């Protein structure tokens, strides 16, 4: 299945214009290929070297029946289901309209991979919408002008990692080894789990113990037979169920970056490869386990990848391996915590777990930390609770008054999960010191118990 991008959004924002630009020629309005709805146009799109299928949900404004809303919703849902990524388009000159909110909600509900684009972005008139667009809770908007071809480079930059991750996944799907645990009836037919598996990557420097850890988790011989079984491309993943908090099985998929590296024929490339493998694994993952070697923890390479995971908005768990060879466990743990705080302040609150991949000690704790980090990463805090909390925070430590002008904060809401992101309506957002933002972020983390996940805080000018 080729990589599919769906362009969605309300009528007249410029979807067809972008579609035509991506496809490069005008296509017939209706495509009656089986499986493609009559309202969805399909074409072969291209930006630079990326080739993909584009779906356009435009053409709706011609529909005259009064169930336009309902049709639009159904059509969008269908496009989302067919697509690997949705380009959600708004009109930068019109601002964020209620109809846009409806689309944003559909996309959020469907858990879609979304690229938010503010089209008609040429000229200054678009500036305000770019900021406003954050309130849709779909991350950073890119600024496009489909008509004038502006912003296509940026679109490509955003698209590329998603595209590459898709290609990797397609490769990874072939050699999957499904390992079932906790099932005492060996012969029972395998019922495919509906839930999307939680995606985990174990990253770390060579010899940190990544393969040993993965083997320990999934069972030795399964992995050993796995990678040999006709793997031609370089992403390897294994899937299994873990026991969740209530004993409910939670499907997991672990990306084996070490396995990728084992396949590297040229030894000199080893170091370089393991870094780029790690980078790719971070793109795949929801939870990134940064595996450190207790003898050489927090090396440059570890710090780089941990920082990348944070910037990419992944949930992070720090695991210190080879704990079995450490004699001074108490002292060492204290030392590790201090280094962690000093060297990775951006990951404050992330769990630090000690394990021995070799003996298996601590591995169950690591698995629990992973599931918990994932849960927190998906956490949603109600607006009512947030605003009660905000009042308390402001009383306890009022915002600064640069030049005698008190910065006022009136309202706060969570706009996104995975990772949690919040918007605060504030006067003079540009004057807000970083230290005050940190105070709020740290407060959120502690008071709403959100360890192990990046937290994003956006300030929005309340005008
Ligand atoms: P759709 O209904 O979302 O498919 O929107 P269309 O692609 O049909 O575009 C609606 C209108 O917006 C047309 O008149 C386009 O020429 C215009 N349009 C599309 N993209 C841009 C843009 O980047 N800038 C400006 N100024 N107008 C645009
Ligand atoms: P990778 O390069 O990160 O995949 O690391 P490996 O899993 O290949 O492990 C590198 C070396 O560390 C091997 O010799 C392992 O036996 C050893 N090792 C891995 N985990 C542990 C552990 O928990 N304790 C000890 N003592 N050695 C370990």
Automatic annotation (TrEMBL):
Task: Describe the task this protein carries out.
Answer: GTPase that plays an essential role in the late steps of ribosome biogenesis.
Keyword field contains GTP-binding: yes
Q: Which gene encodes it?
A: der
Query: One Pfam family from the UniProt entry?
Result: MMR_HSR1
Provide the protein name. GTPase Der
- Name the positions where GTP 1 binds: 9-16, 56-60, 119-122
List the InterPro entries hit by this protein, alphabetically: G_ENGA, GTP-bd, GTPase_Der, KH_dom-like, KH_dom-like_a/b, P-loop_NTPase, Small_GTP-bd
Query: Could you describe the subunit structure of this protein?
Result: Associates with the 50S ribosomal subunit.
- Where do the EngA-type G domain residues begin and end? 3-167, 198-378
Which organism does this sequence originate in? Yoonia tamlensis
Q: Where does GTP 2 bind?
A: 204-211, 256-260, 321-324
* SUPFAM superfamilies given in the database record: P-loop containing nucleoside triphosphate hydrolases
Q: Which UniProt keywords apply?
A: GTP-binding, Nucleotide-binding, Repeat, Ribosome biogenesis
Q: Name one GO biological process term.
A: ribosome biogenesis
Can you tell me which family this protein belongs to?
Answer: Belongs to the TRAFAC class TrmE-Era-EngA-EngB-Septin-like GTPase superfamily. EngA (Der) GTPase family.
According to the UniProt entry, its GO molecular function terms are: GTP binding
């Amino acid at each position: 299945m080729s990589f599919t991008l769906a362009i969605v959004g309300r009528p007249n924002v410029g979807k067809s214009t972008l579609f035509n630009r991506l496809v490069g020629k005008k296509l017939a309005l209706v495509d009656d290929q089986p499986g493609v709805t009559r309202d969805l146009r399909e074409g072969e799109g291209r930006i630079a070297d990326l080739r993909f299928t584009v779906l356009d949900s435009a053409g709706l404004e011609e529909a005259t029946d009064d169930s336009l809303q309902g049709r639009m919703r159904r059509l969008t849902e269908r496009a989302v289901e067919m697509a690997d990524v949705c380009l959600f388009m708004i009109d930068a000159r019109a601002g964020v309209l209620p109809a846009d909110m409806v689309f944003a909600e559909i996309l959020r509900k469907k858990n879609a991979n979304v690229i938010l684009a503010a089209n008609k972005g040429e000229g200054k008139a678009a500036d305000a919408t770019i900021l406003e667009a954050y309130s849709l809770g779909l991350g950073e908007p890119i600024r496009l002008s489909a008509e004038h071809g502006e912003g296509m480079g940026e679109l490509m930059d955003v698209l590329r990692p998603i595209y590459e991750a898709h290609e990797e996944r397609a490769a990874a799907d072939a050699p999957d080894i499904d390992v079932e645990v906790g099932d005492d009836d060996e012969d029972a037919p395998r019922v495919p789990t509906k839930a999307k598996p939680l995606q985990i990557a174990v990253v770390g420097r060579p010899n940190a113990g990544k393969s040993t850890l993965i083997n320990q988790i999934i069972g030795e011989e399964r992995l050993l037979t796995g990678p040999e079984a006709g793997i031609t491309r370089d992403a390897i993943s294994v899937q299994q169920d873990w026991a969740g908090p209530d004993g409910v099985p939670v499907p997991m998929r672990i990306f084996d970056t070490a396995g990728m590296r084992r396949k590297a024929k040229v030894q000199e490339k080893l170091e370089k490869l393991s870094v780029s493998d790690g980078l790719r694994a971070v793109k795949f993952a929801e939870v990134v386990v940064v595996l450190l070697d207790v003898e050489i923890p927090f090396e440059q390479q570890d710090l780089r990848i941990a920082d990348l995971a944070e910037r990419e908005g992944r949930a992070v768990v720090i695991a210190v391996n080879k704990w079995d060879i450490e004699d001074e466990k108490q002292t060492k743990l204290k030392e590790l915590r201090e280094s962690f705080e000093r060297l990775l302040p951006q990951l404050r609150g992330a769990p630090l777990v000690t394990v021995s991949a070799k003996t298996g000690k601590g591995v169950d704790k690591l698995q629990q930390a992973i599931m918990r980090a994932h849960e927190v990463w998906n956490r949603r805090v109600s607006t009512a609770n947030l605003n009660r909390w905000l009042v308390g925070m402001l009383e306890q430590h009022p915002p600064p008054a640069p030049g005698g002008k008190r910065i006022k904060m009136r309202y706060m809401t969570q706009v996104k999960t995975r990772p949690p992101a919040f918007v605060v309506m504030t006067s003079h957002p540009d004057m807000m010191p970083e230290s005050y933002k940190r105070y709020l972020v740290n407060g959120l983390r502690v008071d709403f118990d959100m360890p192990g996940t990046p937290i994003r805080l956006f300030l929005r000018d309340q005008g």
